[in-house]
Amino acid sequence: MGEKPNPNANAKPVSTIGSSVIPIINKLQDIIAPVGFESFNISLPQVAVVGSQSSGKSSVLEALVGRDFLPRGCDICTRRPLVLMLEHCSVSPDDDGAEWGEFRHLPARRFYDFSKIRREIQAETERVAGFNKGVSDKQIRLKISSPNVLNMTLIDLPGITKVPVGDQPSDIEARIRKMIMAHITQENCIILAVTPANSDLANSDALQMAREADPKGSRTIGVITKLDIMDRGTDACNFLLGRVVPLRLGYIGVVNRSQEDINYNRSIQDALVREERFFHDHPVYNGLSDKCGIPQLAKKLNQILEQHIRMVLPNLKAELNARMVVVLKELRAYGEDMESKAEQGQGVILLSILRRYCEAFTAMVDGKSQEILTTELSGGARIHYIFQSIFLKGLEEVDPCEDLTDDDIQIAIQNANGPRSSLFVPEVPFEVLVRRQLARLLDPSLQCLRFVYDEMIKISHSVQATELQRYPYLRRRLDEVIGKFLHDGVKPAERMITNIIEIEMDYINSSHPRFIGGEKAVELATQQLKSSQEIRSQSNNDKTSTAGNTAGANSSRSWSIFGSKASSMENSSSRSVGRTFHDTEHSSDKSRSSSTIKLREPPSVLRPSEVTDHEAMKIIATKLLLRSYYDIVKESIQDLVPKVIMHYLVNHAKRELHNTLIQKLYRMWKHGRDLLSWDNIVMLA
C-alpha cells in the first residue's frame, strides 16, 4: 500500500455519462481476463489505441488520465498491451479527491503515487518481455479511479516499428502488426488511430491497419497529434474534417506536451490550459472547437463507447446467458462444492465420485452414455466389433488344411498303420491331425481376449467423469486400481479359454450328429477321385500313341514304398541279369554258385512314396473328416469364447468395479491418504 499524496488542488470533477454500463463491461473484463479472451471466445466493447512509434499515443493516454504514469524513452516503450480501465469516482471528503491505480496482478494493492505505477508497469513488462526491447502479447491490466476521468476502457498497444532494436527478432514489425490486428479485428472494438500532424495522413500506419480491420470506417476514430509543430502556414483542417481519409466517427486534433514540458515536469493540467489557448487563438482551429482538444476527445470516446455498449448489450447479454448455461452444466458435472459438504466430510464426496464414475463406466459399456459419438464406434460397440468382425471372421477365413500337405497326411496314415496296410481310413491319424489343427484355435481366442481387455482400459480412461478432473491425484490412483482389477479379470478368462480348447482336443466326438463320418467321407472321396481319373483319362486319350503306351504302362503301375516304380525295377533287373548271364556263360560252376542278390540299404530318412489310387482316396477322405470336425469345433469356439470374455471380464467389471473401488480407494482414504486434498485440485482453464 502506498502513501496518499495531497491531491491536485486544481483538479475539477468532470461530468460523466455511461456510468452505469461501462463499469459493467470493466467488471466483465476482470472476470474473463484470468481465463483468457481467446479461450472464452467473446468480444467485449473497448477502445484500442493504435499508432506508430513516437506518434504521441502515450501523451494522449496520459492526457486522458490527467497524470504521468506511462514509461517513456527514445525507443519502443509499450512492449505489452496495457488495458487501462478508467473509472470515474465522486469526490469523497475522506479521500479528499485522491486518485489511485490498481493492477490486476497485484489485487487489493492501491498505488496513490503514479510514479510507482510507471515503475510497476516497467517492471512487469521486463518480467515477461525481457530487459531489452522484446515484446509480448500478454496483457497488463490497470484500473485507475479518479474524479477527473470519464468511464472508458482503453488498450495501449505497442507502437508499429520498422527496424529491430535490442533483442527484438528480425520480424518484429510483422509480430506487432499481428498483435494489433488480433485486437482491432474484434467487432466490438473501437479503434483509436493516432497519427502525428507532421506526417502524411494518407501514409499513416494506424489508419492503414484500421482500414484493414474496419473497411467501412464505422468504428474508427482518428486522432491528429502534434498540431502545434506543423509548418507555419499549414493546418490540419482537411484532416479534421475528414476530407483526406473519411471516417464515420470523425477526427479529433490534440496538442501534445513537448519534451521540454516533460523534462521540466510541467503538469498535464498546465499543458491542457496551453492546449486550450492554442486552439482558441488559432485562426483555423477556433472554428472547430468540437474537433479539438483532449477534453473533446475524452467526451467523444466516452459517448461513443457508451452508445456502442448500449447497442451491443442485448446480443452480448444473450451470448453470455447462453455461455453461462453451458458453463453451469459443466460445473454441475464436476460435483458439489467441497465447502458445501465440509460438515459431511470428504468420505461422502469420495463415495459420490466413485459411484458416478462406475455409473458412467457401465453406461459406456452398455451403449447408454449421454455423450454418444456420431463420428466413430466407442465403448461396448467396439467390443461387439471385435467379436463379430475380427474374431468370428478371422476364424472363418482359416482353412484347417492350409498347413497340411498331402505328404503330411500320407505319412500320418502310414505311420498309424505300422507294418500293416489299412483297408479303410484309420482313426488314429485323423485324431492326431485334428488335435493339431484344434490347437491352432487357442492363439486367436487369447488375442480376442487381449483386444477386449485393451478396449476396457480405453473405456476406463475415456469415461467422461468430469468430477475427477478436479482431483488429478485421485484420477491417477483410480486408473491404477482399475488397471489391476481388469488385469486380474483376464487371468480366469484366459484359463477358461485354454481349458475349452484342451477339452475339445482331449475328446474327439466322432458321433456328433453333424460330423460327416468315415463311410460318408470315403464315399465322397471315391467320387472325387473317380471324377479326377475321368478327366485325366480323357486328357490321355488325346495324346500320341507313344504317350498312350506310356500312359498304359503307368496305369498298371504299382508303387514301392521307396518311391521307385516296380516295372522300372524289373526292367533294370532284367537288363542286369541279362548282362550277367552273357558275361558268365562259360564260367565255372564255382563262379555261378557264388553269385548273390544284394538289396540296397534303406535310407536314414524315409519320405512318402507316390500314392496309389487307394491311398489318394484315404488322403481326400481324411481332409473331409478334418474340415467337418474342425467346423463343428470352430462354431463352438466362436460361441463360447465371447461368452467367456463377457462373463469373466466385461460383466464382471460392471458387477464388481464399484465394490473394488470402494474397498481400495475408500480404504486408502480411511488410512490417511489425502485423495481429495485442495493441494491436489487442478485449476481448469
UniProtKB/TrEMBL annotation:
<dbReference type="InterPro" id="IPR027417">
    <property type="entry name" value="P-loop_NTPase"/>
</dbReference>
<keyword id="KW-0547">Nucleotide-binding</keyword>
<dbReference type="Pfam" id="PF01031">
    <property type="entry name" value="Dynamin_M"/>
</dbReference>
<dbReference type="InterPro" id="IPR020850">
    <property type="entry name" value="GED_dom"/>
</dbReference>
<protein>
    <recommendedName>
        <fullName>Dynamin-type G domain-containing protein</fullName>
    </recommendedName>
</protein>
<dbReference type="InterPro" id="IPR022812">
    <property type="entry name" value="Dynamin"/>
</dbReference>
<feature type="compositionally biased region" description="Basic and acidic residues">
    <location>
        <begin position="580"/>
        <end position="592"/>
    </location>
</feature>
<feature type="domain" description="Dynamin-type G">
    <location>
        <begin position="41"/>
        <end position="314"/>
    </location>
</feature>
<dbReference type="InterPro" id="IPR000375">
    <property type="entry name" value="Dynamin_stalk"/>
</dbReference>
<dbReference type="InterPro" id="IPR001401">
    <property type="entry name" value="Dynamin_GTPase"/>
</dbReference>
<dbReference type="Pfam" id="PF02212">
    <property type="entry name" value="GED"/>
</dbReference>
<dbReference type="InterPro" id="IPR003130">
    <property type="entry name" value="GED"/>
</dbReference>
<keyword id="KW-0505">Motor protein</keyword>
<dbReference type="Pfam" id="PF00350">
    <property type="entry name" value="Dynamin_N"/>
</dbReference>
<feature type="region of interest" description="Disordered">
    <location>
        <begin position="527"/>
        <end position="555"/>
    </location>
</feature>
<feature type="domain" description="GED">
    <location>
        <begin position="619"/>
        <end position="685"/>
    </location>
</feature>
<feature type="region of interest" description="Disordered">
    <location>
        <begin position="568"/>
        <end position="610"/>
    </location>
</feature>
<dbReference type="InterPro" id="IPR045063">
    <property type="entry name" value="Dynamin_N"/>
</dbReference>
<dbReference type="InterPro" id="IPR030381">
    <property type="entry name" value="G_DYNAMIN_dom"/>
</dbReference>
<keyword id="KW-0342">GTP-binding</keyword>
<dbReference type="GO" id="GO:0003924">
    <property type="term" value="F:GTPase activity"/>
</dbReference>
<dbReference type="GO" id="GO:0005737">
    <property type="term" value="C:cytoplasm"/>
</dbReference>
<dbReference type="GO" id="GO:0005525">
    <property type="term" value="F:GTP binding"/>
</dbReference>
<feature type="compositionally biased region" description="Polar residues">
    <location>
        <begin position="568"/>
        <end position="577"/>
    </location>
</feature>
